[in-house]
Specification:
heterodimer, A: 314 residues, mainly alpha, MetI-like fold, 0% strand, flat, B: 677 residues, alpha/beta, Rossmann fold, eight-stranded mixed β-sheet, 22 helices, MetI-like (chain A), MetI-like_sf (chain A), cell membrane (chain A), membrane (chain A), ABC transporter permease (chain A)
């Protein structure tokens, strides 16, 4: 087990380093000169040269890369080209919004999707299974930005139950929660269907296993069979999926953030790419990569912890 | 006379399928008397498992009980509600399952699983339940149950898992214990131990036992009465001695003749029952066995026979021969296809040229990386799967390689073909050392060697047709101007597969047919050596003979050398010229097959040979042939590796590893204290 953790951690570090390298190369192959963007068109060549030297932009790429990695390891993600603020500070302001949204969206999707999948598998071809099946495919197929727009039209504009834009007033938790409902609904809706399908499939498979029949042959109640014998096994692949999904949402909430004018990492990446504000993009992408790796690592560890067969083979 | 504990009367069960109804059980009636053990025998598709699930009302969703009664302890249970049934299951009727690996939940440890079974005992505290579970584990022979009970199924060996399965079934002290193929997934030595344990427990708990199996030996060892099922019907039932010594129904007679463990003399060609079981969508109008029966008369095909009572008490059978309306055609004495006239029981004289010669072949698997081993302090980060194996095989000869699971026999077979790399040693094939050949030259030689893999269906790609599967070797090794269509038909003829099968896919084949495809694939390139890994595993007794006979015929025709890897000793005994016994990666005894079976010299061989349950109720084993379990290859015992389980072991065996020695009859043995031969 400890060996496995060590190996996975080492692997995660390698993944992050490779991601940094890939990111670095990609950003430097985007057309557009960061110096002229930072200083504006009227800067003299002398000022430009001085700025380039300060930012090490006149150095060979390999050297710039090393400086970059060194800074990152020290927690310095660079400075915003426009505002001269620390990128780390900007991101730490934005990150909580994204994480809140991702947790809220996946949270309600898990709370609804897994039970629906279970019920569909326990009574296959029943009305609940058919309804869940149709709705699942429907919600998976409809893109979340469309859901967002409809949600705004119905709940915010026509019914006026909920606010449309922003993330709510700082310090006012109730207001922030009210602002969270629609985006979380829009982002999570597709996940409800996705998780329901997934849990149904693996649950059906597990319910057909010999050990389920033996548990029933020993006279265990249906509730014990489902919750103690089937669900813990059936949910294992879903946990991995949720881990990957959560990682994806860290940058994938961009639509919701734009439509609902919420602050967040996705939005920052989108805005800063358009503005050619490289240090911020670099920092934001890096943070999402690290979070992604951490989240999937946690999911894998949970799975291996829950399944004694995997636990022992590590 | 007391009423029977379980009484099944005229039970009919159908399965709804997209192709219509399958009439899985038809008019099944038999009873299980209190305190007795009843065996239900049948091949796959006989409906024997359906009976279990009908009794416990755990039938698949698409099953319909059409009619009939199941009386348990005098009460009709088929009409009972789910909650009433739940109180019967586990409490009054309990089951020991076939495959303990898949029938025990992987995510709960035994303490959790067993206290769950005791959930109805509300008056018991958790500690009391656990204590009871530990006691039961101790009773079934699991050493150190206090610490083992918190382990998970995958941490138990196969034999121990089945013991735990028995402990779970007995936990509630059931009135009826059903054992569903309790030893099928186990090795010979474990099988003997489980049979012994079950017989002991039955005596102790005075439980009524119902054993469901295809294994005639197991039934003969354990049961007082036997019910023979075929294609969803009970065709014969009676006292175990009547069934085994005076079988009345032609199917029972044929089944007993087909069992290789029953044939006292060696015979290269095994008896078979030709044909397949009928399609139960449309069961035959007359007798269900008539299409395969050697005595079938016109009436048998038209009129269904009624159960007939025979002179012996409780002996019933369904056959027109018995009600006197049909008579045995003259000149036919055996029910199974008799063996060929040219078959001699004396060992053949094989004087072919040397084909394969292994000397000191070793295979080592790395089990963890060097860094990992260093960090965790493991000094040997590898496993020796095969150690110093030496063998020789001539053209036209069959060598049986026998060992329990984990003995390294499959690895040895694969190492010969270069499918796993050998560590040291020599593999001489037709005089050339395969391990020293450059890859290009090896591929050319590889044409002359073929492998038949375990699992006939699983080793065929599900997306290719039979034709594409059997001509695949030609495509890989070059077709040499051969027309693939012609070749496919030739191979099809050779393995006696109808030509219209060429366009089928593996899932449309029965086990025996898939095996034929495997034989055709192996022989496509006219090899001189065939390595067959468990060629009859998963096949019914009546079908395995067909495959083995086919292989024998092809051997005689083409002078093939066979290396047959199997744990099925009775089969190996019939078809092999030479025998090699493997234990923990080492060959412990090898030599002439018949001589070894007659008088084993190695204690392990003796245990294996004695361990096979005999399909003869008067030859029940009273003593266990071997105790304990196979040690782990990661932690080999010092000295002779078998000493931990050997009843003859001395201090010498515990300290010094025996060298190979040749006995007077030419066999080679690795033992300090050989048995008298």
């Amino acid at each position: 087990m400890w060996w496995y953790l060590l190996k996975r951690l080492g692997l995660s570090v390698v993944i992050v380093l490779m991601a940094i390298a890939a990111l670095f190369v990609m950003l430097h192959s985007i057309p557009g000169d960061p110096v002229s963007i930072a200083l504006g068109p009227r800067a003299t060549p002398e000022i430009q040269a001085a700025y380039a030297e300060k930012m090490h932009l006149d150095q060979p790429l390999a050297f710039q890369f090393l400086i970059f990695v060194g800074n990152v390891l020290q927690g310095d993600l660079g400075t915003d080209v426009f505002s001269n603020r620390s990128v780390g500070l900007t991101l730490s302001e934005q990150l909580p919004y994204t994480i809140t949204l991702a947790v809220a969206a996946l949270g309600w999707a898990i709370a609804l999707g897994i039970p629906l999948g279970c019920l569909s598998a326990i009574w296959p071809n029943s009305w609940i299974d058919r309804v869940t099946g149709v709705l699942s495919v429907g919600t998976i197929a409809v893109p979340s930005f469309l859901v967002s727009i409809w949600a705004i039209l119905i709940f915010a504009i026509s019914l006026r139950w909920l606010p449309v834009l922003g993330a709510g007033d700082e310090g006012d938790i109730i207001d922030q929660l009210r602002h969270l409902i629609l985006p979380a609904f829009a982002v999570g809706l597709g996940w409800v269907g996705y998780l329901a399908r997934m849990v149904r499939a693996s649950m059906l498979e597990v319910m057909g296993e010999n050990y389920i029949r033996s548990a029933r042959a020993f006279g265990l109640t249906s509730r014990m069979v489902v919750f103690r014998y089937a669900l813990p096994v059936a949910v294992l692949p879903t946990i991995t999926l949720i881990g990957v999904g959560f990682g994806g949402l860290l940058s994938g909430t961009v639509f919701a953030e734009i439509i609902f004018s919420r602050p967040g990492i996705g939005r920052i990446i989108y805005d800063m790419v358009l503005a050619r504000n490289f240090p911020v993009v670099q920092g934001a992408v890096l943070v999402t990569i690290v979070l992604y790796v951490v989240v999937t690592l946690i999911a894998d560890i949970i799975v291996s912890w829950l399944d004694p067969r995997v636990r022992d083979s590590l | 006379m007391k009423d029977p504990l379980l009484d099944i009367r005229n039970l009919n069960v159908d399965f709804r399928t997209p192709r219509g109804r399958v009439h899985a059980l038809r008019d099944v009636s038999f009873s299980v008397p209190r305190g007795k053990s009843v065996g239900v025998v049948g091949e796959s598709g006989s409906g024997k498992s359906t009976v279990i699930w009908a009794v416990t009302q755990l039938l698949a969703r698409n099953a319909v009980v059409e009619s009939g009664e199941v009386l348990f302890d005098g009460e009709e249970v088929l009409s009972w509600s789910e909650s009433q049934m739940m109180d019967v299951r586990g409490e009054k009727i309990s089951i020991v399952f076939q495959d303990p690996m898949t029938s025990q939940v992987p995510v709960l440890n035994y303490a959790q699983q067993m206290t769950d079974i005791l959930y109805r005992r509300r008056g018991m505290s958790m500690a009391e339940k656990k204590k009871k579970a530990i006691e039961m584990m101790r009773r079934v022979g699991i050493p150190d149950p206090e610490s083992r009970i918190i382990q998970y199924p995958h941490q138990f060996s196969g034999g121990m898992r089945q013991r735990a399965g028995i402990a779970m079934a007995l936990l509630m002290d059931p009135m009826l214990l059903i054992a569903d193929e309790p030893t099928t997934a186990l090795d010979v030595t474990m099988e003997a131990q489980i049979i012994h344990l079950m017989r002991e427990l039955q005596r102790e708990f005075e439980a009524t036992l119902m054993v469901v199996s295809h294994n005639l030996g197991l039934i003969a060892e354990l049961c007082d009465e036997v019910v023979v099922m075929y294609a969803g019907e009970v065709i014969e039932s009676g006292d175990v001695r009547d069934i085994f010594y005076r079988p009345a129904h032609p199917y029972t007679q044929a089944l007993l003749e087909c069992d290789p463990a029953r044939e006292e003399e060696r015979a290269r060609f095994l008896p078979v029952i030709p044909g397949d079981i009928p399609d139960l969508h449309m069961p035959p109008q007359g007798c269900v066995f008539a299409p395969r029966c050697r005595y079938a008369a016109e009436k048998c095909h038209d009129v269904e026979p009624k159960p007939t009572t025979l002179p012996e008490a409780g002996h019933n059978s369904r056959c027109h021969l018995l009600d006197g309306t049909v008579t045995v055609p003259s000149g036919k004495s055996k029910s199974a296809e008799t063996r060929r006239a040219d078959d001699t029981t004396s060992p053949r004289q094989v004087d072919g040229a040397a084909l394969l010669d292994l000397s000191n072949l070793s295979v080592r698997f790395q089990v963890m990386g060097a860094v990992h081993a260093r960090l965790t302090g493991v000094s040997t980060p590898y496993v020796d799967a095969v150690l110093d194996a030496s063998l020789s095989l001539r053209k036209g000869e069959t060598l049986g390689l026998v060992g329990e699971s984990g003995s390294g026999k499959t690895t040895l077979g694969r190492a010969i073909l270069g499918l796993v790399p050998a560590k040291t040693g020599q593999v001489l094939f037709e005089g050339q050392d395969l391990l020293k050949l450059p890859p290009g030259a090896f591929k050319a030689l590889r044409r002359d060697m073929a492998m038949m893999f375990q699992d006939p269906v699983g080793s065929l790609s599900p997306r290719r047709t039979v034709k594409s599967l059997i001509t695949e070797p030609l495509e890989i090794h070059g077709r040499n101007g051969k027309n693939l269509d012609v070749e496919a038909e030739r191979l099809c003829d050779m393995v006696r597969l109808p030509k219209n099968f060429l366009s089928r896919y593996p899932h449309e084949l029965s086990g025996g047919q898939a095996r034929r495809v495997g034989v055709a694939r192996a022989l496509a390139l006219n090899p001189s050596l065939v390595i067959a890994d468990e060629p009859t595993a998963g096949l019914d007794v009546s079908v395995q003979g067909e495959i083995l006979n086919l292989m024998s015929e092809l051997q005689a025709e083409h002078g093939l050398g066979y290396l047959i890897i199997s744990h099925n000793l009775p089969v190996i005994r019939h078809i092999s010229d030479k025998l090699a016994i493997m234990y923990l990666g080492r060959l412990v005894e090898r030599g002439n097959c018949e001589a070894i079976f007659d008088k084993p010299a190695h204690p392990y061989t003796e245990a294996l040979v004695r361990g096979v349950p005999k399909p003869d109720p008067d030859k029940r084993r009273t003593l266990l042939s071997i105790e304990g379990e196979v040690p782990s290859v990661t932690n080999r015992p010092q000295g002779c590796e078998f000493h931990t389980r050997c009843k003859y072991a001395t201090d010498l065996c515990r300290t010094e590893r025996p060298d190979e020695q040749m006995l007077s009859d030419g066999r080679i043995l690795t033992c300090h204290h050989p048995l008298a031969i």
